[in-house]
Amino acid sequence: MSEAKTPDTGRRSERSHQAILKAVVELVGEQGYTRLTIEAIAARAGVGKQTIYRWWPTKGALVLDAFAALMGDVAPLPDTGDVAADLRGVIRATVAELGAPRFEVPSRALTAESQMDPALAKQFVDTLLRPNLEVTKERLRAAQKVGQVARDVDLDVAVELFFGPLFHRWLLRTAPLSESYADTVVDYALAALRPRKSPGGRG
Amino acid sequence: MSEAKTPDTGRRSERSHQAILKAVVELVGEQGYTRLTIEAIAARAGVGKQTIYRWWPTKGALVLDAFAALMGDVAPLPDTGDVAADLRGVIRATVAELGAPRFEVPSRALTAESQMDPALAKQFVDTLLRPNLEVTKERLRAAQKVGQVARDVDLDVAVELFFGPLFHRWLLRTAPLSESYADTVVDYALAALRPRKSPGGRG
């Protein structure tokens, strides 16, 4: 078969690429990361193993790509001027994502296995999680500039006030997640970050 | 060997009991829950398998007992009248516990494997986690009664404002945990829960 970049080859490549990423996410959900093999991915995606080896240097790189595709691009948060509304948007979207089976099952598997594999965990956090935390911090930084969030707030702590409770509830299944829960978390977390009248009165 | 409850037999039983619980925690840290076998526990603890089968009906029950012993008894939080100081105490203690290797390694393993085993996860949460959340809620409820925490606060959401950020940071290793971090989380979370002057002004 010709390797020339005709339109047909390009379309076939793109289809194979998508089929591989989809197979990876499904198989991580079914079997976990450790037991995932290139053979199984190739079989599920209907491609040759060499295709996978040509495109990805390691299993870890492939899994990160597959989860990045699953989670979609990270975009800056909107800035409508209403910080509560903008944050409700991102926290509601996170709740919806955590509850969607196509996302939930493989994400639990990857989070679980990351515990036993700190190098994978670091890549997972740096590549997939931190960009989402950063765009949220960026929105809070803008709110600081207009006096909606106190200037002395540590934004690294602040951002985990929004995502930490969600993650705790989701991972430990302490209670169901819902849109109204998302809104309550945003309200409470923003109340924590408001400028205070009394100087130094955060404690 | 006599089964009569002489003082010597009692001491021997107690030693075996403690050795078994210690072996379980060590082995969960080393191998995870799934691969844990009664044979390996018996060998590590220096007891016969029958001793273990006599005392615990299932592997799950044994692991929960071992982690309950590791985590210690759940006591009500002190109520010194200073809700910030009382909560700093429990959150600092949680940070110390999460950072202690004898606790950290097996806890990560159990948290990870709970993701693949919802029944184990539920027992783990109900037996080990929820009592700690409940005593914290109880302290917040007392603070509501004296006007230090707003009466309309949902305490199930509130309690995860304290523990959620810690857990997110610890499990995902987004940043190190420290005592000053613990204090900051308590300060922010309490600021979120304070009564407001304007009625309905939580949003």
TrEMBL record, chains A, B:
SUPFAM superfamilies, A to Z: Homeodomain-like, Tetracyclin repressor-like, C-terminal domain
Pfam families: TetR_C_11, TetR_N
PROSITE patterns: HTH_TETR_2
GO molecular function: DNA-binding transcription factor activity; transcription cis-regulatory region binding
Keywords: DNA-binding, Transcription, Transcription regulation
All residue ranges annotated as the HTH tetR-type domain in the record: 14-74
Keyword Transcription: yes
Segment forming the signal sequence: none
Known DNA-binding region: 37-56
Top-level taxon in the UniProt lineage: Bacteria
Name of protein: TetR family transcriptional regulator
Annotated organism of origin: Myxococcus fulvus
